[in-house]
Amino acid sequence: MSGSVRTSSSTDTARSSVFSESVTYEVKNKASNSCWACPRGRPQVCHVVPRDDLQTQLWIERGLIDFRISSHLNGIALCGSCHTEFDDAYDPWFSFMPADLDFFINFELRDRERRRQVALSGQAPRRRVPNANSYKQHQVDSGIIDSDSIGGLYTPYYLAPVSHRVSTFSTPRPWHGAPLASLRRAFLLLGSGRAQSIDKDQLQKLWRLKELYFSDDEIAVAENSPVETPSTPKRPAEEASDMGGSPAKRSCVEINRPGSGEAMDVDNVFASITEDNLKAHNMFNSSFTANDLMRRFTSTLRESPPV
Predict the structure, then answer these.
(1) What is the pLDDT of residue 283?
(2) Strand partners, 95
(3) Strand locations in 139-242, DSSP E?
(4) HNH nuclease domain spans which residues (predicted)?
(5) In the chain, which residues have pLDDT < 70?
(6) Segment holding 97, helix H or strand E
(7) For the chain, what percentages of helix, strand and coil (3-state, to nearest 5) are there?
């Protein structure tokens, strides 16, 4: 199909596929020495989270990466074609994610509450996330997969304009690796113009999960115990009353008249600077400067009666 074949970059492939011999053997063996995504043989072993991913440290700080980038948990066996389509972070034509995103959303919500309780006790909470074993066990307990499965189910998504792949190869299948590694890649799809290829409900859940992992209100919970903010002492009611108003309703500010110790109500001062007054002093003229305004304001202060 014209325009639907992407050529591989030897640099990108080398960058993404350097594992130790033992890890390479293990990943290929778990995929039966075939491409995980399609029926082709002679697979390459690809990093799911790239070795040079600039967000790796951020994910570690957020408690989202608890595995070594060089381990088999971050490897997937892909043929040369699928590998190339997977490796372009700017415009991926292939990706994959856990089939049961509800499990990850509910896990995070429960862990947020746990972290909140830990923070209230004065300790620094650390995030917990599902790993390969816990995701697999959840699906075993739910009767979705057998206990001898290599891992939980993941759904492959082909975003390239090759319709036969979408219908033939998008069936969920087990993968042995770290689910958060696949989510790192899947979150990239949220910025893709090809995301319409993904089921709408699944896409909404992916957005929801990303918000839970990276929302601003989580920062205080994830990093430290609660920080107590000193409260500003409230003005006693008697003191506010002496100033001529109730504590809740008095809003004017008092200042001193220039050259004297007399207090003035700034609300009355600004009320005297009317539009006609401004026009009279050419304050709407483009040549009127900030210094001119200050001089006019000082003059008004002198002319205004004391409170």
Answers:
(1) 46
(2) 157
(3) 153-158, 173-174
(4) 44-89
(5) 1-17, 160-169, 216-307
(6) strand 94-98
(7) 45, 10, 45
Q: Residue 300: which of 282, 276, 277 has the closest Cα?
A: 277
* H helical segments located in 47-162: 56-61, 80-87, 101-120, 132-141
> Token pair for residue 198?
């993904």
Q: What is the pLDDT of residue 170?
A: 78
Quote the pLDDT of residue 269: 45
The SS3 of residue 256 is: strand
Domain ranges of the chain: 10-223, 237-303
CA 15 to CA 47: how far, in whole Å? 9
Calpha distance 155→279 (Å, rounded): 70
Return mean pLDDT, the chain.
76
Give me 12's structure tokens: 């990108």
Q: Which residue has the tokens 């029926």?
A: 39
Q: CA 65 → CA 43, 69, 100, 131, 170, distances in Å?
A: 26, 9, 19, 10, 26
Contact 152, 138 (CB under 8 A): yes
| Max CA pair span of the chain | 93
